[in-house]
Amino acid sequence: xxxxxxxxxxxxxxxxxxxxxxxxxxxxxxxxxxxxxxxxxxxxxxxxxxxxxxxxxxxxxxxxxxxxxxxxxxxxxxxxxxxxxxxxxxxxxxxxxxxxxxxxxxxxxxxxxxx
Length: 115
Fold this sequence. Notes:
This protein is mainly α.
């Protein structure tokens, strides 16, 4: 965490769960010294991360595991393209076969879903 704080902009809030590494005195002192507010999710609350965990599972199985990225830049670009596909062209069963863009923003449905 200290390396990240040294390299990047200091956040206003640090969100985490109740894991012992995040509730230790040493960890809290680092955040307090930088006046970073602490937000902790419920201990063991699986539902806190359910949507994000499902999204990352889909990204890994439909994009990451199928590619052999040569660099971090290539991985970022590939995942970025996939997220564009995921939102604009990939039908979702939970949205009655609509894309998120169509379901939430009323964008027109694509003719063919391709990656």
